[in-house]
Amino acid sequence: MSQSGAIMVLGGGVAGVQTALDLADLGYYVYLVEKKASIGGVMAQLDKTFPTNDCSL
Amino acid sequence: MYCPKVVVDTYNERLDITSATHIDYAQAIPASYYIDAKECLRLNYETCNLCAQTCTAKAIDFSQKPKKLKLDVGAVVLTPGFGKVDDSVLEKFGYGKYPDVVTSYEFERLTCASGPTEGHVVRLSDHREPKKIAFLQCVGSRDETCGNGYCSTVCCMYALKEASVAKEHDPDLDVTIFFMDVRTQGKGFDEARKRAVEKYGINVVRARVPRVDEIDGRLGLTWVTDDGKSHSGIFDMVVLSVGLDAPEDAQKIADIAKIELNNYEFCQTTPGQPLATSRDGIYVAGAFQGPKDIPESVTQASGVAAMASELLAEGRNTRTVTLTYPDEDTALEAEEPRIGVFVCHCGVNIAGTVDVKAVRDYAGTLPNVVLYEDTLYSCSQDALKTIAGKIKENRLNRVVIAACSPRTHEPLFQETLRSVGLNPALIEMANIRDQCAWVHAQEPEAATEKSKDLVRMAAAKARLLEPLEQPTVDVTPSALVIGGGASGMGAALSIAEQGYKCVLVEKSDKLGGNLARLTWTMDGQDAAKVLKDLTSRVKKNKNIEVLLETEVEAISGYVGNFSTTVSREGKTEIINHGVVVLATGGKEYKPNTYLYGENNRVLTQLELEQKLKRGKSFLKGANNIVMIQCVGSRGDDMSHCSKLCCTQAVKNALKLKEAKPDATVYILYRDIRTFGFYEDLYREARKQGVQFIRYTLDRKPEVLKAGRGIKVRVYDSLIGEDIDIPANLLVLSTGIAPGENEALAKIIKAPLTSDGFFLEAHAKLRPVEVAVDGVYLCGLAHGPKSLEECMAQAKAAAAKAVIPLAKGRVAVAPIVSRVNQDTCIGCGICESLCPFKAIEIVKVGKKRKAQTITASCKGCGICASHCPTLAISMGGFTDDAIMAQIHAFAGDNCGEEA
Predict the structure, then answer these.
(1) Residue of B nearest to A52 (CA)
(2) pLDDT at B813 > cutoff 80
(3) Roughly what angle, to the nearest 10 degrees, separates helices A14-25 and B294-311?
């Protein structure tokens, strides 16, 4: 049987989004599954990030 | 807008209200409104239907039912994140009872410009600004009574951040952080902590506050400090630094995926394979693997991509779809400039200070501007769509976006241009957020005038923008990994298993690096087993060529086409490869204090482990064993925290207690930084009777000779005097020093941190890449970390390294230097100044001429600015365009010389 070229990523926070981006860049089709209406997870609720106080969005 | 059902806004941590039909925030992806099915009147009571009737796009269809989809996939990655600590844990601190006791999540929303108070921190009870705030650390963490014995790893950092942000808003604010240990062990975090505490004058108090009481509408706290003294204080607001819990549905996920969880319901993994679950083909990354911060989550995310890519190497490119763009409309591009200016509100980030509409109208008075508009968030998906539509409708051929920084957002707008057939170089950004709204927040009128200046300048430059070619180059499909320790082997193995050739060079005569000196992993398992597994897999893999006793002499070329000279047994050899992974490691720091090297009873932690491995006879008569933490680290010798010494000391203390139960083990420490699940080891050590004594920098322990033995003098803050411990054995936690990175850093032109480790391209978003394209980073070369983190990082570096190899071609950024060889005099100034080795002198006929190596060029412009004959110009930054911008600054609308 030939190998699948698709991968499911469960959870669309910063880890899931980064995994999906890298997998797509590596030549795979990605199903990014998120239970909320938008991706970003908790990081989307943050204002700035330690230690550089860069904008989180 | 028409939805009549009011609901609490969970995105804003229930501090605000919204409608059942809403969008969480303006930049949400996808940027579409959704209906909260639990609250919707139509879905629950069959009434209303107002939204469906008013929606002009007819986008609401209540007849839709949930569908079951069957996805055919070769691997699954679990990234469900973390859950929230139960409210019952917070109630101990008056949460729910006193409105001014808030969680750190709620406080985050209060400090945020897009939050319910537009970034003004107020008390929820009376909406007044608080004058005195207390942060309580370790709420729901390091607390067995709530079942969370682990450390949540991130709270010390976010509390410092939230405290700093609050102080930025109100410099008179009095902020106190109550903590047990300050755990800022991440790379560069200790320095950031020091900066925050000094710059903002944040009080840090080492005490655990047991409860919160209300006193006359304010909040009373009592606490006991190290010296046993009791204190009390009254605050206007208390912020609970809530820890990270396992995801709420962790057990459900585990049942469905058939994977094992640890005792805290996080995913079970091992130090050697931190991203693998107990089931083949199912991987884990992020906070579900254990509490962690953003850089580590991002690192693991890339690492897990490598694991899936190893498993499915043959399936690569079988399911991918290619994005296509319309052809470039070169005729339109060549027409007289038709500029569109879009001025962004960025919510209140810009519009709170700058009069956006005035800037927009001013833009309309500028030459060649045919369209001028304002947008609420220009980076949001629907705004980008609108901008694309306006470009087409108005046949724009130049675009000015007055918003934020091109560093973060220009690619987004360039993509928009490409989507409508315009060359992405035909955009200019004016950063009116950072350069106007933020820095001139107190002077709105001046900020507005300056915004107009920036827009005028941007428009002047936009008139002269020219389309740029977007070249691509072929890639040599192989990698060079420098360093044969655990990280280097891990990276090489991953690259090889993803299907690419790899040369692994190691300067010593064997593989293993620091792992070969380690006896136990952090979970107490045999480190030699991990090493043996790695080395045998490396040796067996046909894609890996190992070169021992080999040094890198020179690296030339650029991403996709590197050529490296190595020396081996006195001979040099050339290796051609597409990418480089730096895994050069670090080394155990060797101190010249505390009698180390003078007395054979003084050892480092690694030396102790090696002795223990050989047997316990050396412990005979060793009734008192003392460990001193931060010898070298966090001090004058090395300013950084070595991150793993606390856990290593606790691990070894437990091994000592196991080998010799009647010995007393003392650990003299500054902060115990057993982050994450390592906290379990710390608790176990205390249970086993290991004595922890805290010392401060102004009263460091002293080691004195006492006859043939030694004694350690330390100040005990609880009893308020020095105590002498006769030590039969003294173990120094000496930390991790960088390797000899300078030479390699020069060869690669990769920057080092002030501590001597390699600097990553972006601390959060590009943690395993360095500033030079095609060069990646992992292990101790990046900074001190445990084996577990090294292995995850090695995978991450392998994922990033394989991306260009898998693509086969790499795109070259169009903003590069171009040499006009007719006017070049071949002086070579540019070649000598280029920090990226991206320009070289070649012979053209009989003359010497400069030539740009386009793929290596970073577009910094140093060559162009130093060329004595102005023969070099930068794509997107021509002399003409920059001069026009300068003239426009002087007030000349057209940007032409007055």
Answers:
(1) B192
(2) no
(3) 40
pLDDT of residue A54: 62
Chain B hits for A40, Cβ within 8 Å: 28-29
Rounded Cα distance between B610 and B620, Å, is 16
Half-sphere exposure of A6 (CA within 13 A, CB side): 10
Residue B104 exposure: Cα atoms within 13 Å on the Cβ side: 28
- Chain A: nearest CA to B419, how far in angstroms? 20
Give residue B127's region: left, alpha or beta (phi > 0; psi -120 to 50).
left
Residue B354 structure tokens: 């700058």
The percent of residues in chain B predicted with pLDDT above 90, rounded, is 81
Give the C-alpha separation, B786 to B645, whole Å: 9
Task: Determine the distance in angstroms separating the CA of A37 from the nearest CA of chain B, rounded to an integer.
Answer: 7
Backbone phi, then psi, for B620, in 5-degree steps?
A: -60, 125
Of B824, B811, B884, B77, nearest in space to B474 by CA = B811
pLDDT digits over B245-256, tens only?
999 999 999 999
- Identity of residue B372: Y
Establish, for the pair of chains A and B, how many residue pairs have beta carbons separated by less than 8 Å. Answer: 210
Reading the block at residue B175, the tokens are 């902020």
Question: Measured between beta carbons, which residues in chain A are less than 8 angstroms from residue B81?
Answer: 11, 13, 15-16, 41-42
Nearest-by-CA chain B residue for A2:
B315
Mapping DSSP to helix (H, G, I), strand (E, B) and coil, where does residue B406 land? helix
Residues in chain B closer than 8 A to A14 (CB atoms) = 286, 294, 297-298, 301
Of A19, A41, A55, the CB nearest to B304: A19
CA-derived radius of gyration, chain B: 30
A1-57 pLDDT, tens digit each: 578 999 999 999 999 999 999 999 999 999 999 999 999 998 888 877 776 666 655
Question: What pTM was estimated for this model as a whole?
Answer: 0.88
The 3-class secondary structure across B637-682, one letter per residue, is: CCCCCCCCHHHHHHHHHHHHHHHCCCCEEEEEECCCCCCHHHHHHH
Is the bond preceding residue A51 a cis peptide, omega within 30 degrees?
A: yes
Report the distance separating Cα B492 and Cα B154, nearest Å. Answer: 31
Question: What's the pLDDT at B763?
Answer: 87
**DSSP H stretches of helix in B119-236:** 155-169, 189-200
Q: Which domains does chain B have, with CATH numbers?
A: 1-70 (no CATH), 83-245 (3.50.50.60), 330-463 (3.40.50), 474-585+739-809 (3.50.50.60), 589-736 (3.50.50.60), 817-895 (3.30.70.20)
Nearest-5° Cα angle at B60, B55 to B66: 170
Q: Quick one: three-class SS letters along B33-53?
A: CEECCCCCHHHHHCCCCHHHH
ipTM value, please give it: 0.95
pLDDT digits (tens, 9 = 90+) for B778-790: 999 999 999 999 9
| Lowest-confidence pick of B112-121, B191-200, B284-293, B534-543 | B112-121
Distance from CA of B315 to the nearest CA of A (A): 4
